[in-house]
Amino acid sequence: MSLISPFSRRLYLRIWLAVVGGVLVFAFAVGMAWRWAAEQNQQQPPSREIRITDAAGRTLVDGVGLRQRRDPSEGVLYRIESATGEVFEMHLSPRPPRPRPDERGPAAWFRPPFGFLWMLALVGIAVTVGVFPIIRRLMQRLEQLQRSVQRFGEGDLSVRVAEQGHDEVAALARQFNAAAARIETLVQSHKSLLANASHELRSPLTRIRMGLELMQGGTPSPAFRAEIERNIAELDQLVDEILLASRLDSGAADVGTVEPVDLVGLAVEECVRVDAELHVGSGDGADAMTAPVEVPGVSKLLRRAVRNLLENARRHSQGKITLTLTREGHDAVLRVCDHGPGVPPAQRERIFEPFYRLPGASERSGGVGLGLALVRSIAARHGGSVVCEDRPDGAAGACFTLRLPVTR
């Protein structure tokens, strides 16, 4: 049992033994086929056309000769049957013996029947020796992949496998690296989300606790009640956004049903909430209402994306807020522009990171830094994108452009 166990655990040894066994079976089959063919030739003596002429070239015998089976020491006998039905016999005397080399010399091993056996043995040895390093090299890549999977399972999420070649092993390595990168990103994202959420949850909880301590059993004033309600609403919004961000980052499939969503009707409802102006055009700058702009998506997610953009603009704008909805090619383009301080070019990508606030922004200004991150996640979930740009008219402020494909 101790001798069989290592072979059963090593895949490269099992493959090597399978190849060697296949070569041996093939050699045995070739030998049997060769022997059978030789026996068939002996059982069916060949016939040939025989023509005998005299010195003047006249044909004496012309017919088909069939070799008769007889002892080799008696020579060769052909029975010839001519076209007229006459039968002749042609006798060839035995071939004089040739001088044979010393039977004890090295050449004796290469003559039948040993020559064929030596040939099979040499072929088997060559295949056995030549195939082993090839199989071992292939198995080393699989063993490296096995070690990497083991390290990854033990918690080292940064481990990757070298992608060598273009065969199935290389494809497996690429798939493992892609899966490992995705899992590492999700884990890091969840860690960051948890750490930032812990910090953000403390602020409203601390304010509520301080307020309750200051109240000391007395009747709260309307302003105090409003502050408590605002903190509770902030907590509720934060928990809701954290849960939604977590589900979007993990690629959850049960975030809603994909259906045609009328962006015009959705934009009208959300603009009324924040008193924003809505312009719907065909993409050429016209403000006239046109046919509904529909995109396939999850209605509640798209509504959250539009609401977050408008809430962000209302929080920072010092003037009117404008939402422009147009159709550009195969995309529906939604632009939310404000008259706030704007976003520096160096910060226009970072503002889409979870819990990131611009320098100088305080917690009292509202928002927890998840709104724009959710907008980008929702856009990516629908095959779209969102960017922060300058206002098209060059005025102060920022403009957020959300692009969504009309067809998926």
TrEMBL record:
Pfam families on file: HAMP, HATPase_c, HisKA
GO cellular component, one term: plasma membrane
Catalytic activity: ATP + protein L-histidine = ADP + protein N-phospho-L-histidine
Transmembrane region(s): 12-37, 116-135
One GO molecular-function entry: phosphorelay sensor kinase activity
InterPro entries for this protein: 2C_sensor_his_kinase, HAMP_dom, HATPase_C_sf, HATPase_dom, His_kinase_dom, HisK_dim/P_dom, HisK_dim/P_sf, Sig_transdc_His_kin-like_C
All copies of domain Histidine kinase, residue ranges: 196-408
Membrane-topology descriptor: Multi-pass membrane protein
Sorted UniProt keywords: ATP-binding, Cell membrane, Kinase, Membrane, Nucleotide-binding, Phosphoprotein, Transferase, Transmembrane, Transmembrane helix
The protein, known as: histidine kinase
